[in-house]
């Protein structure tokens, strides 16, 4: 039986520690020194990205599916002619542009309701992204 | 054996200083500052008419794939620094521009090396430096004086209108939005919905410009050379525009530039800045316009980071700082979302 593989995050921890505590302090020139510290910062993000990416995609898909359902109801027949694409985030971007372009025609009440619903979904998307991109320190 | 960068610079300087003999360089460093250009600082030593001469130089080179992509114009930067030379704005002297990429692998210009340090305000050491300087009192005033020297400038008289003059009303704000949106498009990323909402809001809410001024576009500590608690030069001439002076004021007032420090730009107290800036310029700060521009800066930061991480992902630039910025995109979009109330 082969020995268990060392977890990726553990390996990354070691690389990060080495970069921060051994390599970077030993470099005198400012440019390569800053590159070494930056490599450590990036690897901290990568460690979290490797573990959390799957959950994040699922959460984002749920948020977008719910959003498109709700917006269709809110717009009641005035829905934009946005092509149904597999790229849900591109579809949402086109919906946002359409809402602003049609703001006058939709009227303030409908526009505000749809915009608020969109913004609520955007907040959900951002919260997922921030699971990876939140400050490492 | 191929010529080193230093040897190539010596050859170039020799062509510009025909009376110089025994020309050599010392303290030659490629700095870690600067995101869109390669920056080299060094001293040149030579003999001229029997006298020993030493002069500090700073060389700024276009790497061809800089952060601002097609928006960066090295020749414009050189002309701006030249135009500012006779003014009270603290700037380096511009010496020579070389547009032939064959010499160093890209166009470059050479300017005076200004004595002092552009201390990075984001580091622990930098924050401490600025906090202590703030207590001593000289640097905060110098920070405001240098900004006022730009905003009080008769930009037409010194020929700075060549960089473009916006029309009345909302033209300036909309031009800026369009400029940074074009950088986003050049970065060839798929649409980002939060950014789309931000761009649409900015287009729908652009403020009218009350007065045009010469605007630096990135006025903060880190872009200012400091010696003995005085600003010796405003640097990083890449984002300047003729536009609303509130654009610079908003940048100073913004949380974007103080990362936890209670001081604006890590160096000046808010009330002191507001009172002194208004006194030095005769302008009244428009806080509503500043709020708009702060949100515009968040969009601009997003554009920077998308461009930077895109350059790395496309294999056009190997600088790891650019790779790191991919994680900055949601952070700055989160700031913008909160500013817009979601």
Low-confidence stretches of chain A: 1-5
The CA-CA distance between the termini of chain A, in Å, is: 39 Å
CA radius of gyration of chain B is: 21 Å
Oligomer: heterodimer
**Number of discrete domains of chain A:** 2
**DSSP helix fraction of chain A:** over 70%
Query: Which spans of chain B have pLDDT < 50 for at least 5 consecutive residues?
Result: none
The end-to-end span of chain B amounts to: 60 Å
Profile the largest sheet of chain A: none
Question: Strand fraction band of chain B?
Answer: 15-25%
Structural class of the secondary structure composition of chain A?
mainly alpha
Radius of gyration of chain A: 22 Å
Q: Would you state the CATH class of the largest domain in chain B?
A: Alpha Beta
Question: Biggest interface and its residues per chain?
Answer: A-B, 36 and 30 residues
Query: Any guess at the CATH architecture of the largest domain in chain B?
Result: Alpha-Beta Complex
Mean pLDDT of chain B comes to: 93
The strand count of chain A comes to: 0
Strand order of the largest sheet of chain B: 1-2-3-5-4
Descriptive key words:
heterodimer; A: 137 residues; mainly alpha; 2 domains; 80% helix; disordered N terminus; B: 342 residues; alpha+beta; Phosphorylase Kinase, domain 1; Aminoglycoside 3'-phosphotransferase, Chain: A, domain 2; five-stranded antiparallel sheet; two-stranded antiparallel ribbon; 11 helices; globular
